[in-house]
Structures are given as C-alpha cells and as structure tokens.
## 1
Amino acid sequence: MNIKEYFVSIFKGSRSLIKGMEVTGKELITPKVTEQYPENRNTHHVPERFRGTLQFIYDDEGRHKCIACRTCERNCPNQTISITTRMVDLPNGKKKQKLDKYIYDLGSCTFCNLCVLTCPTNAIEFSNDFEQAVFTRSKLVKQLNYLPEKDDPVVPAAAPAKPAAAAAPAAAKPVVEKPAADPKPAAAPAKPAAEKPTTGDTPAAAPGKAEPESTQTQQQ
C-alpha cells in the first residue's frame, strides 16, 4: 500500500463514520416508540388482521362448523394441518363422517391464510393473539377441537300429509240452475149466471124438443 491509498482509505472511513453519527444523532432527538411490554399488556393494541394462531369458531352452544372435508389439509403448503375422522351411525340408519381430531402445528405454519380462505363452512380463523412463545416445540402442536363433541340436533320427522279432504273443506258442487217454471195461463173470465124465470111464467120449450105428455093429452 502506497501513501495515496493510505490517505484514501482514511478519508472513506471518516466519511462512513460521519454518516453513522448522523443517523445516531437523528435517533437521539426522535420521540421514543418503545412498547413497555409486558407492563402495557392490557392496553396494548393489536391489529385485527394480525395472524397469530389458527383456531376454531365455536357458537354459543359449543358447536363448530367443521365437516372434516380436508380442504384445508390439502391446501396447506407445509402440511401444518392433520385431520382424523370417524364414522358415526345416524338415527335414520345411515352413516356420516365426523371430525375426530384437528391437529395444527404452529411451528411450521407460514400464516398464508389459504386454509381460512378455502374453508367451505367458515369453520376456522386466525386470531390476533401474538403471545405464542414456548420453551419446547411439542407445545406448538395444538388440537383445535378441544371442546367435547356434541351430537347433532335431532330433526323431528315430518308428519304425514293429511288428505286433501281433511285438510281443506270439500269443494262445493256446482249449483245447476233449474229453468224457471212456465207461468200458468190466466183463468178464463167467469160466465155470467143465467137469469132464473120469474114465478108464473112458463119457460119456452126448447126448439126441436117434444112437448110434455100432459100437454098432448089435453089437446086430444
């Protein structure tokens, strides 16, 4: 190394030192943002979209929506999820596949969220719990279905349909209108009564009729 190279190296070192001190000087006057953890654990804000660990979604009755379809297990790139199933008999005599164990290895999870996005029943989600530090790897392997499995609610059988005659009143028969009766002919006007002969008058004999025998005898 000659004298020129020696002074050049000193100059470059001094310049890098000045830049470093410049960054350090800025940090000395910058407001501190250090989190006083774990003292502020109760007031520490964690973003809702932070992916801490995978967990089941339970309802108020302690039931989950997992149907053991293994979609999340197939889509996991690191094979973090392992699912075991069992067959159960239903009251109607059929068999159904149900979840037995849902094993999740937090140590090999990449938090890619593919399992949550592809779940057909929205049975799993990522919580924002960041306190997952442990002393042994075995504690990072968790069983997500930790609550006792409950039987499916029994759906009452549908009652047989009632006959239409009992369910609704019988349909009214069509009323056939009878033709109106012909009006009766008006009664003929009454004939005037024949006048009775007065006393002492002999009624005239009807033309063409013979006189009584008493009259003929007198003439003889």
## 2
Amino acid sequence: MLREPASGVNEVVRRATHVLSGSAIRVSCRTHLGDPLNANEVIELLKQGWLTTVPLALLSVIVFTIALERFWRYRGLEKATRDLARKQVDALVRRDVATARALCEASNTPMARVFGEGLRWRNIALEDLNEVLNTGRQEALAELRKGLWFIGTIGSLAPYIGLFGTVVGIMRSFHAIGVTGDTGFDVVASGIAEALIATAVGLLVAIVALVLFNWLQTRVSVIAQVFARSTERFVQALLYVEATPHGTDGGHMPGEARDGRFSPA
C-alpha cells in the first residue's frame, strides 16, 4: 500500500525537476543570446581560427588595395575619353593633323595612344585601319582589367578556405573527445567555435570580393563602350578628311599622297 504513494511522489518530484531545469535552461539561453559579443570575445574567436583567418585577412587587404587602385584609375576616364575624341574630331575636320597629334601626346588617357597610332598610318584600307584601332583598344582595355582576376579568384576561393578551417575545427573537436573520453560541450566548444569563425570569415571575404569584382567589371564594360564609340567617331573624322579635296597644305594632309592614298605620316 505504501509503494503507490511513494511512486506517485517520485513522479511528481521528477516532473517538477524537469520543468524547473527546462526553465533554467531557457532563462540561461535567453541571457546568453541577449548578450552581444564584445570586441575581446571577437578577437579571441579570430585567434582560435588563426589558421584560416590570418590568410583571409591578408588576402582581403590585397583585394581592397587593388580595388582602390582600380577605382582611382577609372575615375573620370569616360569624360576624359569623350573630351579627347571631340577635340580630335574638331582638329581633323579642320585638317589640323599637327594639333590632333599634339592632343594625343598631351593626354594621359589610354585612347590617346590608340588615336596617335591611327594618325601614324594613312596608306591602309579602312578595314586595316579599323583592325589597328581595335588592337590598340583591346590592349588599353587589357591594361584596365589588370588585377581584376585576382579579386575574382579570391571571391571564389575564400569560401573554400573557410571550409578548410571548418574541417580543421571539427577535427580538433573529435581529437579532444578522443583524448579526454568526454563528449561534453566544454570539450568540443573550442573546436566548434574555430569551425564557425572560419566559415563566417570566409563567407564575409568572398561576399566583399565578389561585390567589388562585379562592380569593377561593370565599370570596365562602360568604359569599353565609350572607347568603342570614340573610335567610331575618330574613324568617321578620318574618312571625312580623306574625302575632303582641299586642305591647309595645298589640298592634301601631311602624309597624304597626290593620288588620294595615304602613306605613313
């Protein structure tokens, strides 16, 4: 007769203990989740995952350096190219080739070299002239794309570096379990924290690098369109000069033969 009340009391005590422990766990979780990480805790987490965070930090510094240098290189390039093309057209319409060459020598834009090369060769067909200008334009664009491949590579490679750190952190957690024989959270916490911080840093670097890469690629595409339109206007001005029968030098441009064909100036 006494076993049933005892078992009933034990069941009540067990349930009460379970409820109280669950409440304590929820309160503890809310307390920890409500406390943001301070700077020292973040630095400590980064130190734990130094195997991946240090290389990723160095790569991110290189990415930002290249991006800032390219941003400074692209700044105002479209406007400068349009202004140079407009001045070139005005000079060629006046058949003032000397001024056109002087404009190319005074300008530091990439298309100045292309226009200067186009002014040198005159005794070639239109297709050949377009080929010369297109080659120069592609070389100028290749110079503008210099370094972008590295930013794109880091954007693609950074998540895998973070994944490598994640694997290393998990391996350390299992190694700690094997050494201590304990599966408690205190044993595996360090390895799991290292794994998570490596993943987070890898994703952060990848996101920033890909954003910069896509933005810089878009800027180069816009500049390439400006280069193409400027080249078309330059060729049209040369064709106008060739078709014009009179000029400042006895009706002929410097470097133009009497039969209407063009020779190297």
## 3
Amino acid sequence: MLLLAAGMPAPASPAPPAAPPPATALTIDELAAQVGVPTRTIRFYQARGALMRPEIRGRVAFYGDAHVERLRLIAQLQDRGLRIDAIRDLVAGIDKGELDLAEWLGIEQEVQAPWADDAARTVDEAGLYALAGTRRPGLIADLARAKLVERKGEVYLVPSPALLTIAMRLVAAGIDLATATRSAEVLRKHLGRAVKDLVELFVDGIKEGGVALADPEATFATLRPLGIEAVKVLFAREMEHELRKLIESGAVRALRGRKRSRR
C-alpha cells in the first residue's frame, strides 16, 4: 500500500509453477530404444490410432508409462496374429471400458485352441514309411505328387499325419491314392464354406445376444466335440441319402470291380 501511495508499481505476481513432468518422460528416440520399436513404427501406430498421442511441451513430444505399456500390448497382440486395424479397435474398446483385456485374451486363447490332434510332423525316410505302413517302391514320389508329404532336405514334412493315415487306409481298401486325395479336396472345399458360414452365424449371434459367451472355456469345450460329432452325423445322413438315390437309379448294376495298379 505504501508503494502504491508513493506512485511506485507493485511487484509482479510470481509465475504459476510449471506442471509436473510425467512419471516417465521419454522422447520418441528414448521410447524407441526402451521398447525396441523403430520411431517410424511408433509414428505409424499413432497415425492408425493404436497408440495414444504424446504430451507436447514446447516443441518436444514426451511419452510416458502408458505408451510403453501400449507398445508392449501391441507387440503381444501382433504375435497373436492381429493386424494393426484390429488392434486399434480392440484397444479403443479397452480404453472406453467396453472390453476387458483379460476376458478378451481368454476368448482369443479358446478361439485359437486346436480342434484336431493333427499337428504337422517332420520325419526321416524310415519314419515316413512307418506312418504310411508300407515300403512299396515309388511310394514317396506318389505321396509327394498328392501333396501329402514335402521333402525338406534330408527329412520329410507331413502337413497332416491323420490325412496321410486315412489316405493309406483307403489305398489298402482298394481306392487309389489320386481318388483318395481328390476326395479330401472335395471335403475341404465344401467344409470350408460351411465352416465360414457357421463362424459368421455364431459371431452374429454373439453380437445380437442370441449366443452367450460368459464362460469362453466352457462354451468352446462344448462346441468342439459337438461340432465334430454334428459333422459326422450330417455327413453320414447325406451319404446314406445319395447312396439310396444311386440304388434307385439302377446305376449300381453298372458298377463293375476292376483290378487296379498299386498306386
């Protein structure tokens, strides 16, 4: 007051304190070094909406713990086969509280679980003959032409040991290898379409509330055996129907057994 009375200016008010820096304040180069992701990839994730924007201070962008965690999550999801757009939608749902990550990971684990115990195998020549159950001359060449095996240097890759076993059992029953493999292609073609339609049906059912997925493990534990059993039953009924039609047409009388080459 005395200063004002004397015509002297009052002292300036102190500047407000600067906002505290984030717990972890990293430049983009420091962030890239910490998580092992190139800076251009970090910017790409930001552009696609999968990674939140940094905090800008002056002309410098700073990244915090949340960015480190998000980049590690993106890497984990990419390892599971998700594309960046799918990751963007997933993390957006997590950020909005619409989706629980642990729940989603549980569903994803069940979705990726195998439905058949038929993993590809690599075997040597003796192991391949053991799988085929015969050592007849020309067998390996025939199996390679049928794409049931693939040579990899000194070993052989068997994409589906179960289908190889089925093919060889059909051969032993009098059906040549070419017919057996073409039969598998027919089944794969039509079953592929049916499975695609079924997956879309169930996804729509989940979205519309007609399919409950509160316990993914229990749901898929039920779906796997029942789905396989349903295919067996429907295939058997359709085969019975077609064979009855064959009999009714009189075509069975025209069938004659013929000797075949050992293929």
## 4
Amino acid sequence: MSQRLCNIFVAVVFAWSIPLTAKAELIEGSTAELFQIYDRSEWDTRKQIETMLAMTENGLKSANIYLATVRNEPALFCQPEKLRLAGRQLMNILRDGVKSNQSLLQKPWGLALLISLQSTFPCSQPRPN
C-alpha cells in the first residue's frame, strides 16, 4: 500500500474512532482480537463493534469522495453508491476477507476492513501503487 493510502487510512480511522465508547483494545487491536471480543461478547458490545465498523466504512467512503473530488485520484474501493451496509454485514465482509487472506488476522482490523472492502467491491480501473 502506498504511503498516501496509509496516511489517508490512518487519518480516517482515527477520526471516526474517537467518539466511540468501545474498549481501547478494539480501536487498536488486530482483526483476530476483534473477532475474539465480538464472538465472546453480549449483544451491547457486539452492537458497539458493529457501529465502529459502520463508522469506519463511512470514513473510508469519505476518503473515496476526497480522492475523487479534491485529488482527482481513483477510489480505494468501488461500493455501489446506493448500497448501505449494516454493521453485521460489514462484520461478514471482514470475516470473508480473512477467509480469503488469513494474514489479515494479524493486521489492524481497520486495515483488514479496507482490504476486505476492496476485495468485495473492486474498481474496474486498477489503483496506482
């Protein structure tokens, strides 16, 4: 991933994660840690995690808008414009991404979500590296 994409990703995830009340390890943890906490938790914690995933996806979509309108660069992923995903759907996309690429388990969950969204919603034009 290019330095530009890394900088955008870090800024977006940080900005969308600040208002959350979820545990600190969720914000900074690996995908494996996120799955462990989610799978062992009660309904309210699962909802917090799903909200965190939805907010991160929203931030990544905002990054796509920025790239297209300000930088005139290709999108990070090409989710259909009218498609709205719920937190549980994003968790399923993340799990599918990990099934396809086991190395994502050790990556920060936000990065794994981005890579999973890229796999689920690829763009027709390749992104520059």
